[in-house]
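Dear Dr. H.,

I hope your travels went smoothly. While you were away I took the liberty of generating a structure for the chain from your last submission, since the lab meeting agenda had it listed for discussion. I wanted you to have the full record in hand beforehand rather than looking at slides cold. The sequence, exactly as received, is reproduced here:
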Amino acid sequence: MAIHYHCRHCGVKIGTIENTAISTDSLGFHLLNQSERQEMISYDLSGDLQVKAICEDCHELLERNPDYHEHDFLIQ
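The corresponding predicted structure, in token form, is as follows:
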């Protein structure tokens, strides 16, 4: 099982963790409430985890333009 991170705003692949022995608690998933987990984490057909996060470019854009937080996607 791999864990794939993609930006929730622009869709860019942020990175992948290939270590199958890593626990989700060590990644901080236990700090998310149920709603956040459902929104951010999903499994694909091969059993890998797909995690929605925010890339550095979108994070910087959101800091400069706080009103963009109203939008689910910044680049389509």
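Two observations you may find useful: Residues 3-68 form one domain. The CA atoms of residues 1 and 36 lie 21 Å apart.

With kind regards,
E. W.
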